[in-house]
């Protein structure tokens, strides 16, 4: 078993601070994850508040995860054939529109639990498309991770980052 010490070059923080593509990649990844997880928590609270049912709360998780499970292989094929930046852009627009509709529906009082679950399914589908394209090496900001960090990381470290991103929900 190797120690892995040769996999990563020493990271020069100054180099990262001045690497614009890497900063765009990192900020888009962080902001997207914060928004996604914040929405997930808010929708969970909302559905429990509306239904007072633990079963409905569990349905939120199921409806959010099922598209990822069902679309993984289809998304991979499409991401290989079409522009991943366009796929990422469409996914983020779909998420923004869905969250806007969620907010308006809650604010105006016309959105029920079924509508919320449908919105969660749309968000889950968009996340499935977006994350797969991102995991294949093109973040939604349109910056290729290897290109953005080639001065800092060796390929093994890049593969490790992608594996962590893919398996993070499982862990």
Percent range of helical residues: over 70%
Tally of DSSP β-strands = 0
Task: Give the radius of gyration.
Answer: 18 Å
**Helical region count?**
7
List the helices and strands and how they pair.
Blueprint: H1 13-17, H2 20-51, H3 54-81, H4 84-108, H5 113-135, H6 145-149, H7 155-167
Characterization of this structure:
This protein is mainly α. The chain has helices at 13-17, 20-51, 54-81, 84-108, 113-135, 145-149, 155-167. The longest helix has 32 residues, at 20-51. The protein is globular and about 50 Å long.
Features:
171 residues; mainly alpha; 0% strand; globular
Can you describe this structure in just a few lines?
The chain is mainly alpha-helical. It has helices at residues 13-17, 20-51, 54-81, 84-108, 113-135, 145-149, 155-167.
């Amino acid at each position: 078993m190797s120690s892995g010490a040769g996999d990563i070059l020493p990271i020069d923080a100054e180099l990262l601070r001045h690497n614009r593509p890497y900063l765009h990649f990192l900020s888009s990844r962080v902001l997207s994850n914060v928004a996604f997880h914040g929405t997930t928590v808010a929708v969970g609270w909302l559905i429990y508040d509306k239904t007072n049912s633990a079963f409905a709360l569990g349905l939120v998780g199921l409806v959010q995860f099922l598209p990822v499970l069902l679309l993984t292989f289809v998304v991979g094929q499409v991401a290989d054939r079409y522009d991943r930046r366009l796929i990422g852009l469409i996914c983020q627009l779909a998420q923004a529109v869905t969250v806007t509709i969620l907010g308006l529906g809650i604010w105006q009082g016309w959105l029920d639990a079924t509508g919320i679950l449908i919105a969660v399914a749309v968000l889950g589908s968009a996340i499935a498309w977006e994350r797969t394209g991102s995991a294949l090496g093109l973040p939604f900001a349109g910056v290729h991770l290897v290109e953005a960090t080639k001065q800092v990381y060796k390929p093994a470290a890049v593969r490790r980052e992608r594996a962590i991103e893919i398996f993070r929900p499982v862990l």
